[in-house]
Amino acid sequence: MMRRACAAVIMRQARSGSFRAARHRVSLTAIRQVLHRASLTLRIASRMNDIFDTTKSFADLGLSSPIIEAISKHGFVHPTHVQAQIIPLSLSGRDVLGQSKTGTGKTAAFGLPMLHLIHADQPFSGLVLVPTRELAIQVTHEFRELGRFTGLHIVPVYGGQKMNQQIAKLKKNPHIIVGTPGRIMDMHSRGLLPYDQVKVAVLDEVDRMLDIGFRDDIRKILGTMRHPHQTIFVSATISDEIERLARQYMKDPQRLELKESKSLTVSQVEQHYFSVQLWDKNRLLVHLLTHEEPALTLVFCRMKTTVDALTEYLNRHGVEAHAMHGDMYQGARNKVMEKFRTGQLSVLVASDLAARGLDVDDISHVINYDLPEDPDVYVHRIGRTARAGRKGIAWAFVTPEQGELLTAIEMLTNVEIPRKEFEDFVPGPIPEEIRIRRERDVQRLERARNEPSRGMAATPPPIAAATVDASKFPGGLVPSARPAKTLGGRMRTKRR
């Protein structure tokens, strides 16, 4: 439709004499270039409208001047759609249950109202629960940037860091605490983190917290806060269990389902999949990283052992990569994340621990080295790219056995993911052990077809007829011989 509209304009100009291709010898290629530029401009505008509410500014939402100043320093002009709807509701004091696509600015959507509502003389007024340590660090960083002119003190609390360091920070009476449920409960039990002063409680990535086993912790924390306060749930997906939590711990919550387009994934993500055999995945990844040369790449694997093995393989083949997963010490994970954020590291291989904890604006490519079993996880993974309206690329490695899983992902995201191939990539030979195993499987099936009775247990000899003796065994049968086959146990007992 856009191309037809642009073509109509050009044709009208041609007929009016202002654009006569024949007279001025304008080539068809030049016309196509004009069409392409016009179409590209319209696509960019459409994408921006998918993410940002260009009819409003942050000042229109009722935020205080120190917060507006910090937002302006970051160069933001218009709020995203989720921010434009959640911020006014939060400022009014309503409980909010918000659902929005990954990468649409949910952190600022609940962070800006919290920074506005809390004053400098109100310690322990804000509590933010997050599922991972990385996300706690990231949310704290964003809060500090957005609240730099408010005078509020924000502290992260999470496992893996020395307890004494966090205790010292809590003793300084911070205004907002961001942390994982386990460490939050620990600090509360020590009397260092009171709940009765909390004005605003936020649960970020609620579905992820439930997935990794924080349901009891969440219920305990929310159930302990019996004083009046505001509660905000934000997540990319909302399940029935989240609905039940909302009904139990929120007061007349306003539910917002913000799906700005038909696709659950953000429109800026260009998705493709590669059909690849299991033994060729390493070689294909090296081929992509060395031939495509993506700027900042995040590679997801299912298992921690795969993360370590793949990172070692990439480094052996000339691709500098670092690993990040849950078995690493927190200090090492923090160093890797800092390198990744500052651009000192171009390839990060991670487990799904990082699927919700990474929020780096300049990630250009997300590669699903292992396709996740849960389609929701795929959505959260590729949401690490195309942040804040930028364009991103998501590639998925799909083995021949994973066709149904790819279909499930397409059905969830409402997007047909096209196949991508590289003609200069030559698949490797079948490994010898896999070839031998396949040949044995074929031979086994062939024998089963030709000899149906082969491998079946021989028919046991008939058991002698049993007699009925009511005096010895009332109403029962008394066997007259041993069974044809026994387990042959020799277990000793204390009987003499």
Summarize the structure.
Helices cover 42% and strands 13% of the residues.
Structural features, described:
With 496 residues, the protein is α/β, with parallel strands linked by helices. It has helices spanning 2-16, 21-24, 28-51, 65-73, 81-91, 106-117, 133-146, 163-170, 181-189, 206-211, 215-224, 240-249, 281-291, 304-316, 330-341, 375-382, 403-413, 432-450, and strands at residues 96-100, 126-129, 154-157, 176-179, 200-204, 230-235, 254-258, 269-275, 297-300, 322-324, 347-350, 365-368, 392-398, 467-468, 477-478. The strands form three sheets. The protein has a seven-stranded parallel β-sheet, with helices on both faces. Strands 8-13-12-9-11-10 form a six-stranded parallel β-sheet, sandwiched between helices. Helix 15 (330-341) links the parallel strand 10 (322-324) and strand 11.
Question: What are its keywords?
Answer:
18 helices; Rossmann fold; alpha/beta; seven-stranded parallel sheet; 496 residues; six-stranded parallel sheet; disordered N terminus
* CATH architecture group name of the largest domain: 3-Layer(aba) Sandwich
Q: Give the CATH superfamily of the largest domain.
A: P-loop containing nucleotide triphosphate hydrolases
Based on Cα principal axes, name the global outline.
Answer: globular
Structurally, how many domains make up the residues?
3
- As for the CATH topology of the largest domain, it is Rossmann fold
Terminal Cα separation, in Å? 94 Å
Helix content: 40-55%
* Number of extended strands: 15
Widest beta sheet: strand line-up: 3-4-2-5-6-1-7
Number of helical segments?
18
Unreliable stretches, pLDDT < 50, 5 or more residues?
1-26, 39-47
User: What is the highest CATH level, the class of the largest domain?
Assistant: Alpha Beta
Mean pLDDT: 81
Cα radius of gyration in angstroms: 31 Å
